[in-house]
Q: What sequence folds into this?
């Protein structure tokens, strides 16, 4: 008998260790590593490290929505330039910037830019990656005539055109982005799968650093070892150029 009791206790301990310690939310039990409980009655999932907020029983992301008097509304679109930072407090690259180099957006890399000598003092610093999104499209905030458009490449990495060229790889997607004031930069093409950060060497390309990918139903498996993130918008004064051109 004592042996049986001990074993049962050990099993219970093991089970609770595997599931995490459950907490209660009203009548429900939940795992606080996966969910957040609001007002002791509403459970919302934690996605990309963000405990979703509650608006009269609906769960929402503060990167896209606000809740006023119990009514959910999309945040206003922003047409001002911005930098982007990784948001997922569970990751080491939380708060690190999206960086442009090699016509590709990476995470926590070095921004790569160029400015002709003749432009002289009018050259922007060029060490920060500044982006602007208008009407669902997105481009680099640059001075070079013709600009540099950004797009989802066929691998659902973010790329941008070379200065003086409008060439975009076949199969790229150049609209369906949302930039929300006080919120995030969202890829609306992915059916809600969102952005992910792929650690160095994980599948997902992008070279030796962390890579940014947009996930969707078909590539989610391939990007399995990447971590869901939000991209937080840090607004800049309108008319801010990050570089003459990004390289
Ligand atoms: C998902 O992304 C992959 C690239 O990673 C792309 O080939 C595929 O067409 C996309 N799927 C959908 C449903 O858009």
A:
């Amino acid at each position: 008998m004592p042996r049986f009791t001990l074993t049962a206790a050990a099993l219970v301990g093991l089970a609770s260790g595997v599931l995490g310690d459950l907490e209660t939310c009203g009548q429900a039990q939940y795992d606080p590593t996966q969910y957040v409980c609001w007002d002791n009655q509403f459970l919302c999932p934690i996605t990309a490290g963000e405990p979703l907020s509650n608006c009269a029983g609906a769960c929402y992301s503060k990167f896209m929505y606000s809740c006023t008097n119990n009514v959910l509304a999309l945040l206003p679109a922003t047409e001002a330039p911005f930098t982007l930072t990784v948001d997922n407090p569970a990751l080491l690259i939380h708060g690190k910037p999206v960086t442009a180099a090699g016509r590709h957006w990476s995470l926590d890399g070095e921004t790569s830019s160029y400015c002709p000598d003749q432009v002289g003092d009018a050259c922007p610093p060029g060490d920060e990656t500044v982006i602007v999104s208008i009407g669902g499209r997105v481009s680099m905030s640059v001075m070079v005539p013709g600009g540099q458009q950004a797009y989802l490449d066929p691998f659902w990495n973010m790329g941008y055109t070379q200065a003086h060229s409008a060439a975009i790889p076949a199969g790229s997607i150049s609209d369906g982005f949302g930039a929300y004031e006080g919120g995030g930069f969202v890829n609306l093409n992915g059916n809600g799968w969102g952005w992910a950060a792929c650690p160095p060497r994980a599948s997902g390309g992008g070279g030796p650093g962390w890579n940014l990918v947009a996930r969707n139903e078909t590539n989610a498996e391939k990007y399995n070892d990447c971590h869901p993130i939000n991209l937080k918008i840090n607004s800049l004064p309108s008319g801010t150029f990050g570089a003459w051109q990004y390289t």
